[in-house]
Amino acid sequence: MFDYLQYLSVLFLILFGMIIHKYEDKYPLEKFKRLKTFKFDMISIMISTLFVLFILDFLLNENIISFINNTFSLGESISEWPSYMCLIMALIVGDFGYYLTHRFLHLRQMWNTHQFHHSTINIYWFSGLRTSFINSLLIRIPYLIGLQMFEISYEIVSAAGIFLLVINFWIHSNLNFKYDKLLSYIFITPNFHRLHHVNDEQVAGCNFGNIFSVWDHIFGTALISDDWKKSPKGEYISWKKFPRRIIGF
């Protein structure tokens, strides 16, 4: 069951990436060449992923998992809930935690941890995976807690991880999407998240969500506008600065 679900999820991820890539070519919001950026992002992601997998393998031992379960699991109170409801609630709780964590990473004291992600000058579907080691770990914690809180099985957790990658591809995609503005009142959309990456101080501190935009609307950090979506973003990262940026300090 695990192998089947895992392989199916990875296949879906690859297929989704190919579809987004094709539609970015056909309906781009901004026109730029992705190849040079793609190479840099690929190197960054390979290094970051290896580090994160090593750390997670070290951290997610039986003692830590047991501690998380004992601390956060709702246990018998959700024993009669259907599996799909537990998964939905786990993602909602995890996404709210992500929103809070993301805002925390934008504090001056934490900015070095998150800065590498915001260095992307050309935002496109794959660029969202450019992130520092420390940032990669911190943003996973809320979803891990949510999934453990509602006792989601390991097989489904693996599929949920792929789903979150799909979301990452989607919200960073360079798409001129017709219903973007309408959907952004509930969900994070490409243009909604694109404003979060704009360098202009007038829009600093907006649109922190990952799946749902409701947290931004509730806490007053939502911005829906067409005025800045093609404004300058990111910064050039020299190879000299690369080691510190990718570590996140």
3D architecture notes:
The protein has helices at residues 2-26, 35-59, 62-72, 83-105, 111-114, 133-149, 154-171, 180-183, 190-194, 214-218, 242-247. The protein has 249 residues and is mainly alpha-helical. The protein has one domain (2-247). α1 (2-26) packs parallel to α7 (154-171) and α4 runs antiparallel to α6 (133-149). The longest helix has 25 residues, at 2-26. The protein is globular. The N and C termini lie far apart (40 Å). The mean pLDDT is 86.
Describe the largest sheet: none
Total beta strands: 0
H/E element string?
HHHHHHHHHHH
Overall body shape: globular
- For the record, give the distance between the C-alpha atoms at the N and C termini, rounded to a whole number: 40 Å
Query: What number of domains?
Result: 1
Please tell me how large the radius of gyration is. Answer: 18 Å
- Supply the helix-strand structural class: mainly alpha
How much strand content do the residues show?
A: under 5%
Count of runs of 4 or more consecutive helical residues? 11
On the 0 to 100 scale, the average pLDDT is 86
Helical fraction: 55-70%
